[in-house]
Amino acid sequence: MHNPTVTPENKGPLTMQEALLKTDLGDNKLFATGKVRDIYAVDPANPNSDLLFIASDRISAFDHVLGSGIPDKGRILTQISLFWFDFLKSVVPNHVITSQVEEFPASFAPFSRQLEGRTMLVRRAQMFPVECVVRGYLSGSGWKDYQATGAVCGIKLPSGLRESDRLPKPIFTPAAKINTGGHDENISFDQVVEAVGEEYAHKLRDLTLAIYAKASAYAASKGVILADTKFEFGLAPDQAGTPTILLADEVLTPDSSRYWPADQYAPGGPTPSFDKQFVRDYLESIHWNKQAPAPSLPDDVVSRTREKYMHAFSLLTGRENL
Ligand code: Q0Z
Predict the structure, then answer these.
(1) Whose CA is nearest to atom 20 of ligand 1?
(2) 167 C-alpha vs ligand 1 centroid, how far in Å?
(3) DSSP string covering 122-134
(4) Tens digit of pLDDT for each residue in 110-128?
């Protein structure tokens, strides 16, 4: 299977085996692209206009976008995000206007098949230049920093912790966004204060910890450990015109979070995450040098990975179908 890209317009069926690798919305203007997501401007002439936020079926591993997509991945992740935006709406307002394609501006109507289930019309916000990371467990760059310094983002931790250990309490470990390619760099709370000011720094930290507390307790009740995750916040005027913090971007998806199956949790080593383990194992097995071009994936790795994403979706949302 070569995961053919769907045709841009609404011709022919979108069958299960097709992955959306590249969005093509005709004359609509691309606003930003990431490894996996694309953003379109609704009205390019208006610098404040809404945005169309689309999750493709691209998948990245070892910092590269792979040659194959995972059919429905973008739809699955968008539905997970929408679930969490709704679940968290009493804690924090969010940027979502609608995910109903029929409610999108008319210029997007010819592309409804491409957009269905994977797209959110969102309010444009002034994004804070900080990745709001929260960790309940010691993994990834947190584990690396802890081994080197005994601290993460300037937060001193008890000695003797093992990889994947649960932390005494969740910690806010912000990171600075590094433009394309480079990894985000862990920063101290004081550096957040320098970037956004004292008041917003405290608000972002408190919101991040409050969201994590509510979401991780819910995930745990479904047999899923939310080891860590990353939020992006922005500012937009509320109904009275007062600048208000909004939860933006994607929220608590497997791409922005480490989800661990609780029944496989074993501290003292790396914990394989829910979604990409078959992909990483395959890429290690072929001894890819982790330089471009990234390889494609065999069909069985694609379909087993798709099942992993669907399983995470089902556990978290209680739904069997997209
Ligand atoms: C998010 C990103 C992506 C590339 C801009 N509501 C918003 N208002 C203003 N800006 C953004 C949002 Cl979500 C915004 N990003 C991150 C996402 C592709 C970059 F899908 N950039």
Answers:
(1) 37
(2) 31
(3) E---EE-SEEEEE
(4) 999 999 999 999 999 999 9
